[in-house]
Give the backbone structure.
Amino acid sequence: MNNSPIGIFDSGVGGLTVAREIMRQLPDESIVYFGDTARVPYGSKSRDTIISFSRQIMKFLMTKQVKAIVVACNTASAFALETIAGETDIPVIGVIEPGAKAANEATENGRIGVIATEGTIKSNTYSKVLKEINPKLQVFSKACPLFVPLVEEGWQYDSVTYEIADRYLCDIMSYGIDTLVLGCTHYPLIRRTIQKVVGENVTLVSPAYETAKELESILCDKDIFADGRKVVHDFYVSDSVEKFRNFAGTILPCEVGSVECVNMEQYN
């Protein structure tokens, strides 16, 4: 089991930011990544739909004999993590709790902003977790639904992305936050634009780094580290193979070889 891969899934390409951190921090570990590119974005979909999608993906990943699963999607972490974690005996972790812990450590004035998809914001999960960590925190949330399609379209550096970011973030900045959680794994891909809008005095928190650290801790506790003899990274999507391969090649610190398309209906 030690040399079994880590399963990672996201609604599309955003989870590659988490995969990148895992590759950097755990270079001996193999990865199986699934991007649900046929059904992105998740943020506007219902809880039941997200749970159904996440169950399908978990079943698929289990066919790859993964030893742990990382839900590299904030919306799926908010809506489906508890459900799917209870349906398997391997570790399943999300990105919200690691991100909340990092934000609490980063803030100096106790005023934290959270930007995410509509689903994640409506779930109020970040606010709940942050308040559990530190009841004195003040949390201000803002849904930024257009960020995901802009990233998926490859418009990270387009002027329209800056204009939309400026419009989204002006309200949340009025609360005097000193820390901003990028509560969607797509958002670090436009980190430079977001930082330009909010200014250098606001610390941006990406859950990807902390999620990789939590995964490392779990592998250590269970003594299931890989020995690094053969590291293989496999990539799967539900649509748009070439588009995903080209995008992943600009994000990951490794060569992206074959990308296979999977029909998720067979995992109902």
Q: What stands out?
A: The two ends are 26 Å apart (CA to CA).
